[in-house]
Amino acid sequence: GQQVMQIPQYQHVQEGEDFTTYCNSSTTLSNIQWYKQRPGGHPVFLIQLVKSGEVKKQKRLTFQFGEAKKNSSLHITATQTTDVGTYFCAGEDSGYALNFGKGTSLLVTP
Amino acid sequence: DAGVIQSPRHEVTEMGQEVTLRCKPISGHNSLFWYRQTMMRGLELLIYFNNNVPIDDSGMPEDRFSAKMPNASFSTLKIQPSEPRDSAVYFCASSLILGTGLGEQYFGPGTRLTVT
């Protein structure tokens, strides 16, 4: 079945540094979603990418979907302490379920 | 909108006891998902309902787990008998599926289950 791998598992940055997390699927995806989970909280939807090569921005966050629709990335410019949390990608291939990656836990120190 | 509601928020039980987790999805949503989250295994889909009908239960660990959705506004996940390895945070999520794609999922606050 489809597997979604996410790297790195953890990232510790100084406030103001950039951060990137990468997501790779074993199969071609119909779309990919990104979620953020704050410590002790629940996953919250950030964005969905559908088209090959799609790039979307939300303020300091940039999301990309690969040309082959098998990989994706989330880049945060100039991190802030409010960016702390775990970022998950979730790939959909058949319309039956989202397969979540293990997530990248981001720690930002001031 | 109150969002997805889950109860209880915390549950501590002894091995062998029955545990029932409850979920009220967002009104108007037609799909409901039960997930389990642990440090080791991450976020795993257990079962997915569409229009109250189970579509995919391949993630349900074993026969000790069962889920029902008797109507559009209520679902339960039952574990009987419970075991220590069932300790995890259980999330319920709902979405509105229109045509293709599973749509944006709204997660509840989760139930933290501890089985001793």
Summarize the entry for a quick read.
The complex is a heterodimer of chains A (110) and B (116). Chain A contains no helices and eleven strands. By secondary structure, chain A is mostly beta strands.
Task: Characterise the protein shown here.
The complex is a heterodimer of chains A (110) and B (116). Chain A has no helices and eleven strands. Chain A is mostly beta strands and 110 residues long. With 116 residues, chain B is mostly beta strands. Chain B starts with a strand and ends with a strand. In chain B, a hairpin with a 2-residue loop joins strand 5 and strand 6 (53-56). The mean pLDDT of chain B is 94. In chain B, the strands form two sheets. In chain B, strands 2, 4, 5, 6, 9, 10 and 11 form a seven-stranded mixed sheet that branches. The chains are: A mainly beta (110), B mainly beta (116).
Beta strand % of chain A: over 45%
Number of strands of chain B: 11
Structural class by helix and strand composition of chain A: mainly beta
Tell me about the largest β-sheet of chain B: 7 strands, mixed
What are the salient characteristics of this protein?
heterodimer, A: 110 residues, mainly beta, six-stranded mixed beta sheet, five-stranded antiparallel beta sheet, 11 strands, globular, B: 116 residues, seven-stranded mixed beta sheet, four-stranded antiparallel beta sheet, 0% helix
